[in-house]
Every structure is written in C-alpha cells, then in structure tokens.
Write a structure and sequence with these properties.
InterPro entries: DUF7344
Largest sheet: none
Number of helices: 4
Order of helices and strands: HHHH
Protein name: DUF7344 domain-containing protein
Number of strands: 0
Strand content: under 5%
Pfam families: DUF7344
Amino acid sequence: MEFVYEALAHPRRRYVCYSLLSSSRWTLTELATKLVAWERDIPEGDVTESSRDDMYLSLYHAHIPKLAELASVLV
C-alpha cells in the first residue's frame, strides 16, 4: 500500500486519476493544458504553449510512468 500512497502523493498524478473518471477522452496535450489551467487557476485559453509543453514533459516523463508502474503492480 505504501507504493499507492507514493504514486498518489503528487497532485498532478491525482488530477490524472481524476480525469480518468470522466467520460471524456483527452490527448496528453489536452490533459497538460487542463492541468496547467487548474494549477494556475486560469482559463484554458490563457495557457501558454511553453507552459503546456513543460507540463506535457512532466506528465510524459514522470507522472504517467509512475501511474503505469502502479497499475502493473496492482494487476
């Protein structure tokens, strides 16, 4: 269970998990845009390309792999 708590410790990973509960399907780029807007409390239209790209890289290289690792442990 400790790994579960570690995987969900970061708010970005919790947001990704929360987004999976939605019936909507988003690309990683769309999810990155939504997450930047949520973290900064700004409209999605105000998210800069640079901020979105930074979030995309963070999700792609750190947060999504951590959640995928958790999923493989739970199965």
